[in-house]
Give the backbone structure.
Amino acid sequence: MASDDDDNERTANRIDIDGDAAGPVIAGNHNLVVDAQHGSTVTVLMQGQRPRPKRHDRVRLLPRRQGVPLGRDADLESIAAALRDGSTVQLWGPPGVGKSALLRHAAHTLTGERDEMLFLDAARREPEDLAQDMFEACYEAGGYAPSRTDLCRLMAGIEMTVYVDNAEYTAEQLRTLMDAAPDAKFVFAGRESSLLGTDGTARRLHGIGRAAAMELLARELGRPVTDAAEQATAAALWETASGMPLLLLRAAAVARLDPSGEAVLPKPGRVEALLPPLFDRLDRPSLRALHLLATLDDAELAPVHIGALSETSDPSSLCEGLAELGLAQETERGYRVETDVVPALRGLGGLQPYSLERLCTYFAHWVTQPTTNAAQVADHARALEVVAELAEQSGRADLAVQVVRAASPALARSLRFGVWGRLLDQGLPAAQRADDLQAQAYFRHEQGIRKFLTGNRAVAAVLLAEAAVLWRQLGDTQGVDAASSAQQHVPQQAPPSDGSSTVSPQTDGSAPDVSGSSGADPTPVQDVSSSGVDPTSAQSATSQGLDPTSAQSAAPPGVDPTSAHVAGSPAPDLTSVQSATTPGTGMPVDPGTAASHVVGAPPPGSVDISSALASSGTGTGAGAGAASTGALAALKVIAVIAALVIGAVAIEQNQDSTDLSTDTPAVVITSPDTESDDPDPVYTNPADTGIDETEPAQTGLAGVWWSSEGGGIEFVEAGPGTYTATAKDVCGNTVTVEFTGSGDTYTATDLMYDMDGGSCGRILGEVLTTITINPDGNTAEVTKEMTSAIEDSVECYTCTPSTWTRAS
């Protein structure tokens, strides 16, 4: 608890956070008030309003004790040696090899009495959510999720060992989690090897040896294996099972449950077919509970829910029995079925399927009970996700909406933004299929709030603008107010420079303002300086006209810029969400100017896309957007990476044609130290730099790099592992992007814009740019990956790899 002096100092300024399921929570610098009906709201916290977390005296969260793994002494010593050296360890191998058992045993035996340690289960959970788990284990700060910067500051100096089971992460995701606790040591367990050699040691687990296998069989049978014939059978079982502990455990279970009572080990040839005999020997309640777990696939479920849904009086003992038979896994939150049990059980006849409506109704009711806290809902997020998936697959999108809508508020309050985002992404398409406009407005609103809280302000602006239009169409003034309140903190979109009609959301709850070509700017770009946003880095979703025959082509070599970038043909139907009409006018509404302008006559200098649109049966005349149905015409767009246009800062084009090839590259270098808000680019050529290319290899990103695609960029070191680059993007905005990393790998997130006819339109999503410096230090491989999109059909046509060469 905080001291009385601290409490008195903060009482007047800080919102009290009690951490229960109904209270507000703080994420970074923002106070989040969750509203399950009209959409959540956020407010910016001033200096001194954020919580002051108090460090726990000691962190020691051990996993549940399970059986001691046999034959793992060498593996255990290898882990211990790596931890003594301060190295990260990754245990990997196929399901059933004993990774979890070894990891749990290591957590108990390799931790000194006064050492700090933490055990986490990463199954179906994002690294950011596990980072919040680590923070909450180390600090007393209910209802607070620090920003990434504050998290690193708070976790610095905490020397603990973190054991992470089911860590099916890429190397980058592993590094993200390790960076969240820079002074901690980590031991990961997963199916695949992904840990880079520079980050630690990946150790593959193989099956146990023959002697350990004999000991395991004897332990499970409850008697020694002494008979010569039985010893021969056991040895053959060990060889056939490749020493896999799970298969040997099941073989002993089949023998133990033998109806004759003789406990005869199965023949070695039946090792791969041990599940049907085990199913045959289960009683009805156990089989029913196992069927429930298999229905939920890889989700884990607490015994209380297993008992309620399978009508079992003692679910804990029943599930414990299933784990002893090798049919289920005991986790920190409950039980999940073993992976190979699911397909085997599906082929078993005679089991009455679980009522989908009952499952959805049960979970939708449970998550909204006052006795259910946010952490419990987050623990069962995967189960909720699976239930919603099953509902959609069965044609009951309405049930999927019911579950996701009920769970969303608690997931937001849990501050586990990864699982919250997954459920929201599932709820929106379900709401569209169910034709539930109210749910669509809610999910878009909450998606926007989540994007804002996780730092994706530009995408948040798009989603909140679309939500505001839907709330207004529904007549929900509280929803409009909530969306408008949140929009105060995100970049606003300006109208297209070609004068085409747009509709901007009103902050007073009135009908949208439909503007024509009068030249008035109904939606000026908001001054974000007051909200703590650096105006040089805030990437507003502007719609500035660009002549595609000048610089900055949106298409990579070989891609026709007139072709659609949206997956599939014809163009997607946008009437589900983006088809609102202004009340009383019948005019089509662009949801908060988030979508590209309605396709009509192309603006001067833009690429003619009418022929491509004609093939999909969409009208392309000037009045195409004013159809009486109010639906927006189909969009033909090209995705571009806007912030910094990595590898193609400026491309010289043939001014006499619309050929967007990149035959003659020029380089734009802008100085990040300039005092001007709009620095003049300096065009040069690598041959004129005077750089001595025979200089020794350098480290880090600092300096000027030339791209194989044409163009260059200058990086300036801003701190340890941090480099900034400032340039103009394809939309004409001056932006600064920060790359972070260590060693030879650095990453940054850029925005992806809709290039409708050559003009910058709405923001479509985000692209992660990864720079990996080669061992020579003077070349680097650059890859781009779309990490998020506001529509499922968005594709990134400019996410092509390139090679960079260091110039200085």
